[in-house]
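Question (not urgent): is this output format expected?
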Amino acid sequence: MIVARLLHQVPGRSPVAVAIEQRADDTAIQDAGKRFIFRIRFPFRYDHVAFVCDDVDADTRTWNALFRLADWFGLDLAQAAIDGFANHPITMPVAGAFLRYTDFVEVMCPVFSRRALARCGDTFGASVSGWGLEALWTARLPYPDYRMAIVDRLRVTHTSRTRGGTLRPVLDALGVEPAAEAKTLLARHGLVAGAPRELARLSLA
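Got this back:
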C-alpha cells in the first residue's frame, strides 16, 4: 500500500492537512506503510489520520470536514463517499443518506482514529497492492466495540479506473497480481472475503 498523503487533526486545534508524498516509483514499496507507522510514530499524537491514494481528488475543506465528523460520531474507521471510478458499490454516495455505518472502509482513502491505527498500523506492510487489507481491518475493529462508516455527506473523486493509476506499472514490474495477493493474505489470517454490509444509516432530514 502506498501512503500518498497523511492528513491529521491536531487535538484542541483546527484540523490541519499536511502532505507527505510517497510516490508509486519509490523504493521499498511493500514495507513503506509499516516503516512509516512504526519508525515515525508522530501519527499517534493525532486524533485521526487519513491515508489517501494519489489518484483521489479532494480539497482540504473536505478532509477537515471528514475529521470533524469522525470525531463527532466517534468513528474509528471512516471514508467519504466515492465519486468517479468506484471500486465497490457500497462506497458510492447514496441519495438521502448523511452517513452509513458499515463493516467496510476501502483502502483507497481510510481515516483512522488513534486507537484504530494502533490496532491496524502493522497491516500496511502486509500487502503490496493494498488488496485484502479491508478484511483485516474489519476483523480487528469489530462492531460494536469499534465504529466504521461511509460519510455520504462528503465526496472525494477517484480519478483512475480499477487497476489503473500510478501503482499499476509498479505491481506489473514486481509481478504482483492484486486478487491473488488478497486471497493469500486472507488465507494467512483465516479470513473469508464477504460482501461489504451496511449496518445502519443516518438519513438527511
